[in-house]
Amino acid sequence: MRTPSVQEWSRKWVDDHLDLYNYAGSLGDTEWQQAIIELLKFRDNYVHQEIRARLRQDLWKMYDSINLKMLELFEQLRQSKDNTQIETIREQVWVLKTQRIEISKKILAVK
Fold first, then answer.
1. Which long-range contacts (CB under 8 A, 24 or more apart) does 49-53 make?
2. What percent of the chain lies above the pLDDT cut of 90?
3. 35 near 86, Cβ under 8 Å?
4. What is the DSSP string of 13-29?
5. How would you classify residue 28: left for phi > 0, otherwise alpha for psi between -120 and 50, otherwise beta?
6. Fewer CB within 10 Å, N or C, the chain?
7. Are 49 and 10 in contact (CB under 8 A)?
8. Contact of 74 with 44, CB cutoff 8 Å
9. Whole-structure pTM value
């Protein structure tokens, strides 16, 4: 699944708010329309905020997925008797730990 570009996010955000603007107009709610116009003035801020929130959400999903894989590997490690297999599992855990650290850094960097 492809991540939408900033332009696509922006276009969708504006379209959604224009739909709301039209709906407010059909209700005769000029106050609401004015509030929507004010929001549209700060479109870039809202769009970037939404993109950061989605990115954080995706990163947390990746982090959780790695944790689940690590738990599975730890269970395999606990049950394994073969030294070669134990070493392979430890290497896989190390790779996942490294990936988890990188994802943690990215989560902290997204503000």
1. 50/9, 50/13, 51/6, 51/9, 52/110, 52/111
2. 72
3. no
4. HHHHHHHHHHHHHHHT-
5. left
6. N
7. no
8. no
9. 0.71
For residue 105, give the 3-state DSSP assignment.
helix
Residue among 66, 65, 87 at smallest CA distance from 76: 87
Three-state DSSP class for residue 48: helix
Which residues, in sequence order, are CB contacts of 6 under 8 Å at separation 6+?
A: 47, 48, 51
Quote the CA–CA distance of 26 and 30 in Å, as a whole number.
Answer: 10
pLDDT digits (tens, 9 = 90+) for 60-111: 999 999 999 999 999 999 999 888 999 999 999 999 999 999 999 999 998 7
